[in-house]
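retry 2 of 3: previous attempt timed out while embedding magnesium ion. Reduced batch size to 1 and resubmitted. Inputs unchanged:
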Amino acid sequence: MENLHVNGVSVVYPGRHAGDRVHALDNINLNINSGDFVVALGASGCGKTTLLNLMAGFISPSTGELLLGSKKVSGPGSDRGVVFQKHALLPWLNVMENAEFGLKLQGIPKQKRREIAAKNLALVGLQDFHEQMIYQLSGGMQQRVGIARALTCDPTMLLMDEPMAALDALTRETIQELLLDVWQKTQKMFFFITHSVDEALFLATRLIVMSPRPGRITHTYEIAFNRKFLACRDARAVKSSADFIKMRETVLSIIYGDERAAETVEASHG
Ligand SMILES: Nc1ncnc2c1ncn2[C@@H]1O[C@H](COP(=O)(O)OP(=O)(O)OP(=O)(O)O)[C@@H](O)[C@H]1O
Ligand SMILES: [Mg+2]
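retry 2 succeeded.
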């Protein structure tokens, strides 16, 4: 399996005037190995989406480079599957047709691509919904199709930008558990963005906390609450354990510290 290396990456967005330039990321160094579930947390504007967009190849760094294995990331590729906050499914196609779409584009024969898509749909619990149209599905089911679709081309890496943000709390918890099952079964690299500290702690093997202006990784934690869950299958027990609560307080104090600092900057400029 290939690893992802983010080496000394900075991103500066050009503004309309020289003074409007946004230093979105500054000297980011990060290695993601197969089987890592990396979650990024941080105040709004700290560059999380920018970092994911670099990994997806949607944008290029201003300085530094990203390598997937030994290959430089220079654009989107089927080795990286992306799940968006708002599902980006094709509403005029049904569940199966969405899940097999990427393979169809690659010219894979129908029987073969249906077989692969069916396997991915089963992985997200949608084996009985192949014929349903996207608009007939709940938000949670749509996100499941989004996950199945991202798995279509058997990517090395899954990239997810707040994929649960629009879901109700109960559906969100169900999909968190489902994601951990997918992670355990596929052993792919995951890069996941969220604003929920609980979600981050529950899912991650590594948690990176970022701070804005310019976007930097300020804290990194290796954690194992996800493995605890996979061993006991009791999310409530994991999330109410003393270790989990202590870690949540630590992370919250870092993030709220940042947000207060950001407000002070804005107030002094406004
Ligand atoms: N295309 C762009 N052009 C100019 N500035 C941009 C662009 N995209 C993002 N930015 C700026 O770069 C900074 C980082 O943005 P980014 O979207 O990566 O943050 P984020 O951590 O994902 O925030 P959020 O939590 O709100 O999604 C912000 O100040 C944002 O305004
Ligand atoms: Mg974002």
